[in-house]
């Protein structure tokens, strides 16, 4: 195998950062890139992903490092100054932080939509070059996924990975598990490779490249409280509300408790009450503040009292607004997407009523 000349910079590594959204396949893409380095490029490589809440629609980052075989990878921290920055969805551009650490050695690839004006992309200076690819359109046309289209585009921009090697790593990853999907995915890679194009013109006003974290050693509140909750839907950390939430239809609920014993984040609020004239623990609804949208509760509910809802249809100041289609149902407003029954509010209400808590 001919030795690859890696375009490394100061760190001695070629470093890639994937900026993505849960559900677009960046995690798998990072794994494939890591294996590509070792199996087919005769490099040392390492890759890992970072995702806070496991939630479809929330930010995911992937970090990949390559270096020559003579050098070892002893760094296992996130990539802060990427040689290649890959943005899987244009919604992420709303967050200037995706560009953090870019410099004159950084090439960027942005997934754009069909018909999107590239002038409005707000690519910051300094940056070596910016490329765009209509990843979603290609993925739909080839029956593949955005991650493989981006993989093809990356191979082209990196310049040291041959298309055949990328095809091979895709076949290794998907061929056995999803043989029927392989043809479309290889087509997606090919079109990503062929259709990624460099854009000219930059808007240096757009974003600041280095963003200091809001809270740090010197500025964090005393007492170890984290005021920026990462694992909630009420805190809008997501660049794009594409995820799902469970909707609770209280009148269908038989209070079996399956959701409560399944939910990993103890979102359900049960309290003593009456159900069909019998005293029992009654489901009061969800505390969305802690819900990460995994929908395990929807799967487990035996009577469809929990159904899948589109999160973006229930926005509103950190809480959820009622779904108008369901407003005719009794009790829906009290315990539903707008219910926002927190343990604190529940207990406060009980105390005000003078009841047992
Ligand atoms: S699993 Fe369904 S029926 Fe059972 S308590 Fe939960 S919401 Fe109610
Ligand atoms: S989707 Fe359901 S199971 Fe998952 S965290 Fe939310 S309430 Fe719990």
From TrEMBL:
InterPro entries in UniProt: 4Fe4S_Fe-S-bd, 4Fe4S_Fe_S_CS, Oxidoreductase_gamma_subunit, PorC_KorC, Pyrv/ketoisovalerate_OxRed_cat, Pyrv_flavodox_OxRed_cen
PROSITE patterns per UniProt: 4FE4S_FER_1 (PS00198), 4FE4S_FER_2 (PS51379)
GO molecular function: iron-sulfur cluster binding; metal ion binding; oxidoreductase activity, acting on the aldehyde or oxo group of donors, iron-sulfur protein as acceptor
UniProtKB keywords: Iron, Iron-sulfur, Metal-binding, Oxidoreductase
Residue ranges of domain 4Fe-4S ferredoxin-type in the record: 244-273, 282-311
Keyword field contains Cell cycle: no
Metal-binding as UniProt keyword: yes
Name of protein: 4Fe-4S dicluster domain-containing protein
Species: Parablautia intestinalis
């Amino acid at each position: 195998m001919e030795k690859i000349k890696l375009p490394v910079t100061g760190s001695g590594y070629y470093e890639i950062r994937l900026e993505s959204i849960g559900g677009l396949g960046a995690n798998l893409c990072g794994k494939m890139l890591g294996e590509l380095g070792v199996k087919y490029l005769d490099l040392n490589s390492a890759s890992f992903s970072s995702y806070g809440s496991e939630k479809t629609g929330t930010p995911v980052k992937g970090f990949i490092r390559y270096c020559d075989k003579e050098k070892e990878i002893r760094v296992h921290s996130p990539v802060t100054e990427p040689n290649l920055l890959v943005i899987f969805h244009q919604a992420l551009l709303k967050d200037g932080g995706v560009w953090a650490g870019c410099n004159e050695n950084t090439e960027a690839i942005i997934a754009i939509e069909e018909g999107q004006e590239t002038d409005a992309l707000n690519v910051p200076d300094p940056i070596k070059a910016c490329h765009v690819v209509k990843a979603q359109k290609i993925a739909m046309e080839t029956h593949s996924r955005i991650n493989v289209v981006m993989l093809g585009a990356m191979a082209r921009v990196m310049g040291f990975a041959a298309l055949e090697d990328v095809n091979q790593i895709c076949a290794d990853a998907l061929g056995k598990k999803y043989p029927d999907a392989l043809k479309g995915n290889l087509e997606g890679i090919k079109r990503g490779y062929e259709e990624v194009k460099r854009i000219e013109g930059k808007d240096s006003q757009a974003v600041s490249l280095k963003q200091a974290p809001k809270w740090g050693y010197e500025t964090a509140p005393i007492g170890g409280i984290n005021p920026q909750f990462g694992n909630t839907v009420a805190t809008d950390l997501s660049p794009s509300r594409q995820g799902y939430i469970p909707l609770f239809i209280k009148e269908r609920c038989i209070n079996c408790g399956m959701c409560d014993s399944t939910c990993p984040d103890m979102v359900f609020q049960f309290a003593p009450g009456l159900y069909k004239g019998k005293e029992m623990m009654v489901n009061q609804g969800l505390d969305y503040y802690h819900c990460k949208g995994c929908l395990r509760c929807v799967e487990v509910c035996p009577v469809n009292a929990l159904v899948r809802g589109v999160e973006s249809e229930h926005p509103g100041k950190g809480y959820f607004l009622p779904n108008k289609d369901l407003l005719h149902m009794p009790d829906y407003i009290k315990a539903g997407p707008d219910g926002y029954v927190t343990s604190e509010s529940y207990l406060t209400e009980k105390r005000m009523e003078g009841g047992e808590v």
